[in-house]
Protein: Gustatory receptor
Amino acid sequence: MSRSNERLLNNALNADFQHMLRPYYFTQKLLCASKYSIKDSFVLPNSRAYCAVSVLALGFITYFYVISSPSEIYLEMSIMYILTVAWIFENFVMIIMFSLGCERFYSCLDDIRNKCTIAYDLSPERNISRKTAKNILRLCDVRFSKMRPCGLFVVDAALPLRLLGLVATYCIVLLQFAFL
Structure:
């Protein structure tokens, strides 16, 4: 097998993992910041042409932002408010999708742990399946922990609810300061 085929087989993704990475992949594509692309269940580096086009697109966006005067930008503040709300809503939807993907992953791990427990209990004699189930259970007990980005919060199904509660609390505090 050639070297490039071996590297390609090491980058294979299953369908569930692809589905979990889809929001992140689309966000990178939207921001012209994608370093890799997912095609036919494989992670492939982007071509030089894609990188050149994304650099040119970002250059044009920066150029048009710089040449437009600030007075023209802030004349239509209502548009800025609408764009800000749309941007916040998009970020919140991305957080929800990422949380759902992580929660599916956690539930799959719990399912694996339950099935290994059943397999361990069903085979009383010392055989390879019992040993494998025991090793998987040990690994799940020792190595598994929910994802904690920067150690700040746990990414699970309750994350969007916690963030919504945080936003509501800050809105109430800001309203209290505005009306005092």
Remarks:
- The helical segments are 3-10, 15-30, 48-67, 70-73, 77-122, 128-143, 159-179.
- The two ends are 73 Å apart (CA to CA).
- The longest helix spans residues 77-122.
- The chain is about 75% helix and 5% strand.
